[in-house]
Design brief:
The structure is a homodimer. By secondary structure, chain A is an alpha/beta fold. The first copy, chain A, folds into two domains: 21-189 and 292-377, Alpha/Beta hydrolase fold, catalytic domain (Rossmann fold), CATH 3.40.50; 193-288, Rna Polymerase Sigma Factor, Chain: A (Orthogonal Bundle), CATH 1.10.1740. Helices cover 34% and strands 15% of the residues of chain A. The first copy, chain A, has helices at 134-147, 161-172, 191-206, 222-236, 239-245, 261-274, 279-291, 297-303, 324-336, 360-377, and strands at 21-25, 28-29, 35-36, 39-46, 56-60, 86-87, 92-93, 98-102, 153-159, 177-183, 310-316, 341-346. Chain A has an eight-stranded mixed beta sheet with strand order 1-4-8-5-9-10-11-12, with helices on both faces. The first copy, chain A, has a two-stranded antiparallel ribbon with strand order 2-3. A two-stranded parallel ribbon of chain A has the order 6-7. The longest helix of chain A has 18 residues, at 360-377. The first copy, chain A, is globular. At the A-B interface, α3, α4, α5, α6 and α7 of A face α3, α4, α5, α6 and α7 of B.
Chain lengths: 378, 378
Amino acid sequence: MPTTDNQDQSGERSVGIVETKLFTFPSLTLDNGETIKPLEIAYETYGKLSPNKDNAILVCHALSGDAHAAGYHEGDKKPGYWDNYIGPGKAIDTNLFFVISSNVIGGCKGSSGPLSKNGKTGKPYQSSFPFVSIADMVNAQEKLVSHFGIEILFAVAGGSMGGMQALQWSVSYPDRVKNCIIMASTSEHSAQQIAFNEVGRQAILADPNYLKGEYSFEHRPAKGLALARMVGHITYLSDELMREKFGRKPPKGNIQSTDFAVGSYLIYQGESFVDRFDANSYIYVTKALDHFSLGTGRELTAALSVVKCRFLVVAYTSDWLYPPYQSLEIVKSLEVNAIPVSFVELNNPAGHDSFLLPNPEQESIIRDFLLSSWEEIG
Amino acid sequence: MPTTDNQDQSGERSVGIVETKLFTFPSLTLDNGETIKPLEIAYETYGKLSPNKDNAILVCHALSGDAHAAGYHEGDKKPGYWDNYIGPGKAIDTNLFFVISSNVIGGCKGSSGPLSKNGKTGKPYQSSFPFVSIADMVNAQEKLVSHFGIEILFAVAGGSMGGMQALQWSVSYPDRVKNCIIMASTSEHSAQQIAFNEVGRQAILADPNYLKGEYSFEHRPAKGLALARMVGHITYLSDELMREKFGRKPPKGNIQSTDFAVGSYLIYQGESFVDRFDANSYIYVTKALDHFSLGTGRELTAALSVVKCRFLVVAYTSDWLYPPYQSLEIVKSLEVNAIPVSFVELNNPAGHDSFLLPNPEQESIIRDFLLSSWEEIG
């Protein structure tokens, strides 16, 4: 059982037992003019904030993530999604840094979103929740960061949608960020990425339980959400990883039964996702993803002309969902703006999900990027 | 309006107006021991069978295809799926060759399948139709070929599932095929390919109208089938093609409306597919695809040790659904068996669907492959 010590049961370096907290702000005005009132932000922190408040790292999660980035909730066997990289002595070293991790608005894991109570009606927003953008998510995070009295974040880091948030931070708050780590990400979704999200949304909309978003929990559009997750899940894995993971069992069964290991695996992924995610949130968050458009080429170069921090951009050869060319667009636009940027393309075979998985090269690269800036300060 | 001349309205070389015919055989015994009784095969032919019956080319269609490979049905604006390559003076030259094109069994476009009448009950089979394999599809085609009195096919050709059938022909009937053209195909589906098909099947099964396959036409599982088609359609296109085709329009609309051109396109693809395809067929045919296993490596080499024909294997760099490595497995196993094989990887940017699209290089390669064998004969 993990303890509050720096050693969990396996002897690995862990932040130990953690709990998600909630902070409530009076409101947040969104880019589209609408207001979330009150603004609730679910978050976790690891490590200690320095007296100068100069050692804070904000981590941003991906589509199906949440505030629980590291350590263990009481009773859980599995740690937070980025536990491989956050902890004492890990790449994002909680012996040095104060790590803040919050749930995005529009999500369904504690922060304001479709499941939150609408202050006006007293009922869950559901599909009356306003559209949010990646920039809105960042503005919500900014309130939390300021609440801690932090003027300048030592770093913002994230993969996939988390990388988009990190990039947006550097644009929205150029004076408030020293370092920016963007992994397996993009400045703008391609038509293919939008297409996969659209299929997921259409699967939810096609579920007869969807009821224009006004469904009850008991009769929620589980099948539609499970299908959306199945499609998404294929895109997070590489062809190579799937070949290794799933052999070919002899075919069996009738027209309705699944007779391939990969099929059963996907069905399981879909069904378990329904227990931990909300269909409306899936729509809101994928819409935010698809609408994120810092652009490419000249448009991106212009957008990034305001940034002032250092960048680490990481891509994965086997990531066919967020392919390296998208990271290279960001790198190019930063370089045209003479912004310091380190780029690396790692050949982890695991596809898009690689940024979450243990990898000594990746660990070194992140650690060294952070420490080389840290040592300049102190 | 296309005419029976060799010129259609655009002046292109066309086989002109064609119609799908039906032939009924007493029965077909499947590999699994079950019987289809009677066996109906929908087919079209183009060109003339030579007196020696030595100029026949069998073309095999892909998942959502049918017997209509070339020319125009009366009243249609669009020609058959492979009209770019079949016709007078085209790569598969109907001035020289007699082209046979049939609908696979298990399909829904005239050949025995879930929509066919069960000889015993007088009602459509629906989900009581037996499972079929790619080998069964080939055995059904063999009956048609023999019906024409053709002992040896000059060639068998196909892309995607059509390529799998062509490969199976060379294994099932090694003495009956002279040349084999396999495009954008594989000897065995990877876990990723199975995964995409499984999502499509699950979408159909999740549709409340599915009713274990016993649905009426009026209340068929249209939404599930449309979703399956949407997912499939993304896999047939390349990222590059989608980027060119779909710009980014400014986002608009509410949570339920689609605000991206690619989203509207996919929804249209899904909805129009429902008008021309059957959900049960989708399950039967994708199951046949996923169960096709001539294997890879040693297993494939052993399976191909019986083949006697010449091969042309074509892959596309941008085809991430049936990537070139799968074609190269076939090539390798043929080479180990000292079977003559020409391999080419074309860099059409259009992804998996490339084999259907006009391309001068592809046209030459196919034409020359066929003619070099034809000239040897006569």
